[in-house]
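Marked as duplicate of an earlier ticket. Keeping the data here for the record.
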Amino acid sequence: MLLAKLRKSWQILSAGVSYSLFGAGALLVGVFFRLMSPVTIISPAKKQRMIRWCIHKGCLTFIRIMRFFGLIRYSFDVDSMHKARPGHIVIANHPSLIDVVLLLAVNKQMCCFVKSAIWDNFFTGAVVRQAGFIPNNAEQVLPMAAAKLEAGENILIFPEGTRTKEDNVLRFKRGAANMAVAVNASIMPVMIECYPRALKKGDKWYDIPEGGPAFTLRSGELLALDDCIDTSLPRPKQYRHLTQFLENYYNKQLSTETTATPEQLENQRGNAL
């Protein structure tokens, strides 16, 4: 009993240290790029690349720290995502609190949607604006996203809109499908698996199973709209059909019994992170 309490205390302490370091790093980046915002000798495009690279490195460092403390394990099989042509929508299921961190840790340059609280914050607002991210409450979301995709950027969307519920049933909303159809963009599916389930909706940030959950990220082949739905149909039907197609695709992918464990993936490919 005492040993179990000590283990739990250590887990809470190490989780607190990990999140605190992540928050401190985010604050430093926010302050730095807040001061950089009026600097005109660096082009906006270069600032965007710099900030996204910093975000990528920060997320990568965070998951490495969590792995060091034994809070999580992870392995990635995302070669198809790295090899795909640019200018597509990246979609992923959303089982845990740190899914976006995992995805940004394996992507050096990716556009994200951000909440208004982050967009309007004095420090984080400067970062996400210069990073070229998109506010999720903007009136011109689709034109802004279309411009990003046409410029060769990749945009991250979670079709569920929030973390997967306790019953593990995926329920996709139409946002990702609407955008893909509206701008005729290909879709890169990424499957995120977490075993045992942890950091679910409603869980405390320190509520982590002993030994840490094992995260596996797998990317599929790039999906062209013509391969998913009949693009000659009226747009409302295309939205519905594509949403259903993607939901079925994920349910099939995540129910397969042939999925490799994180340990198997690490032995087969090595873990570059």
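See parent ticket for discussion. The mean pLDDT is 89.
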